[in-house]
Amino acid sequence: MHGAINWRTSIFMIHHQGDPYLSSPMASRKNRSLVLRLIVTAIGSFLFVGPCGASGGRRGRWRLLMNNTGVVPMHMALTHLNTVVMFDQTGFGPSSYRLRKRLRGKKRCKATGADLTDTSCYAHSIEYDVSSNRIRALRLDTDPWCSSGSFLSNGTLLQTGGYRKGSRGIRYFKPCNSDWCDWRQSKRSLSVQRWYSSSQLLPEEGNRVILVGGRRAFSYEFVPKHSSTDRSHDLPFLHRTHNRDNDENNLYPFLHLSSDGNLFIFANRDSILFNYRRNRVVKTFPRIPGRGSRNYPSSGSSVILPLEHGNGFQKVEVMLCGGSAPGAYEAAGQGKFLKGLQTCGRMVITGNRHRWKMEKMPKPRLMHDMVILPTGQILIVNGARRGAAGWNRATGPSLRPYLYDPTKESGTRFSIMRSTKVARMYHSSAILLPNGRVLVGGSNPNKVYTLANVTYPTELRLQEFIPHYMDRQYHNLRPQNLSVQYNSSSDSGVGYGGEFTVRFRLGRRWQSKAVEFTAYAPPFTTHSVAMNQRMLWLHGASMVREQGGWVRATVEAPPSPEVAPPGYYMLTVVNGGIPSFSHWVRFINA
Ligand SMILES: *[C@@H]1O[C@H](CO)[C@@H](O)[C@H](O)[C@H]1NC(C)=O
Ligand SMILES: *[C@@H]1O[C@H](CO)[C@@H](O)[C@H](O)[C@H]1NC(C)=O
Ligand SMILES: *[C@@H]1O[C@H](CO)[C@@H](O)[C@H](O)[C@H]1NC(C)=O
Ligand SMILES: *[C@@H]1O[C@H](CO)[C@@H](O)[C@H](O)[C@H]1NC(C)=O
Ligand SMILES: *[C@@H]1O[C@H](CO)[C@@H](O)[C@H](O)[C@H]1NC(C)=O
């Protein structure tokens, strides 16, 4: 605790010129990055030398949540009701979640051979409730293996594609506060089969997505369609980036919506900026330096770095890390596991100067997830050091997450977090929770559920990684009891360019300049791809201190749906690098 006081002191020294008791406008975003950098440095140096306590210190800690989820969470997505939809493939026989009766059917499952292929007698999808730490079974009608997804602006998950009969499937999951909601298979279908495609919600229409790529699908399409004649559109970029041998390396392309409304598409080693309204390539970016590939089955990962109100959200920078060496997929098939890629590249995709800035992770890595934390740092978790994605094509589990701080000086941005004991190889995933922790599940490089006698068994343990900022020693700095109020007759959300009120409690003396607001779009995550993940530093227009440590802040919503497509976002108040629990806020097209 003595350490915490030093730390507070160092922040106050940085900010001594600010008004501590404010009802004044808050620091501009220009000041912010400098201020934040100083704060981060202060936290960093304090934590390095200061007492760490019993809580895990700077390197975070791991906690086992469940021993057996029954179903491998190959795909995960957090709903705005704080539940997590998880699912696996359905095509390779039973999971470990035996149902006593068919879901939604009266007939009981019989212990006959037929039951083993009868997917209705085993669950292949579950819903996990974060606060009660419980799961329940969901029912899938077609196989969503290696599919894609996006949350619509009303919080319903639109999930698309998959395998065999599921490869043209369109499914909806409308979250509810009871045990009755389930998957709904649409009667419509995709124009072409989409296995390993990516999905992005379109900004102008909050219930429509674009799907890009997939195995033997060198095209994109919209869902739902505006007319029956609108089908899939050829995308030559996907032909060009496709390796003709076994490797392919352009599946699950990385998609990021730029704040100018164009779509950044990265596949293999190349990228374009694409105007999907006009079917036109706006920019072709330089190839990322170095050999090897970044997309499935090379399976690096990518994020759009946090967007900032200080530049009007006009500067958009993407980052991607890891992947596989040339020929790694083929080599792994012959038992030779090539070292993965150790590099990350960052590139600004707005403006007109584009250059990849390369940096190195502590170790080579592939099949990892990149999760943007509420502090704006990136957690790199799961994966392996050698090989490629695919059945048993990787070795050397990466047990230590990396924390990447984009605001630090190059060369000092990575730090190594505490190691887990659970290998998370092919078919694992990770997502951010509203309690600031990262949910980690899955791993199954085996075709059928194989719980023993293989190097990497089917993994049914569910864990969370708890970053240092959630430690109890920071509770006195943590904003508490968040609530969000919309400032209009409509209580369904805040319109673009509008303001909303955030109320929270901050116990001790605090600095307005140290208080910041982030909004985070929860992704659909699978195979190292977090579709629709994005984070924004929002502008706090004013803050007023009230009785009993309560603070009332007016926060500006993003200016346009291109900056933040409509839907539910996790709002977090961050005080000197220590985040609150998140509260949902909804941005709407008024
Ligand atoms: C998991 O199983 C172990 C061994 O049976 C048990 O000690 C532990 O409490 C279980 N953990 C949870 C979270 O269920
Ligand atoms: C959201 O929109 C979709 C598509 O229009 C619809 O199927 C779904 O029922 C809606 N969900 C809610 C919660 O209203
Ligand atoms: C694993 O191998 C051991 C020894 O060969 C055998 O006894 C056991 O049944 C096997 N377990 C499974 C789950 O196959
Ligand atoms: C604030 O939240 C805590 C739990 O974090 C709760 O125990 C407490 O009752 C809340 N206080 C108010 C005034 O809502
Ligand atoms: C409510 O929002 C409008 C426009 O978004 C703004 O002009 C007005 O000042 C806001 N009022 C309050 C009380 O925040």
From TrEMBL:
The keyword Signal is annotated on this UniProt entry: yes
Domain spans labelled Galactose oxidase-like Early set: 489-586
Coiled-coil residues: none
Top-level taxon of the source organism: Eukaryota
Transmembrane segments: 34-57
Keywords: Membrane, Signal, Transmembrane, Transmembrane helix
InterPro entries reported for this sequence: Gal_Oxase/kelch_b-propeller, Gal_Oxidase_central_sf, Glyoxal_oxidase_N, GO-like_E_set, Ig-like_fold, Ig_E-set
Gene3D superfamilies the UniProt entry points to: Galactose oxidase/kelch, beta-propeller, Immunoglobulins
The Glyoxal oxidase N-terminal domain, residue ranges: 74-469
Name of the protein in its database record: Aldehyde oxidase GLOX-like
Native organism: Punica granatum (Pomegranate)
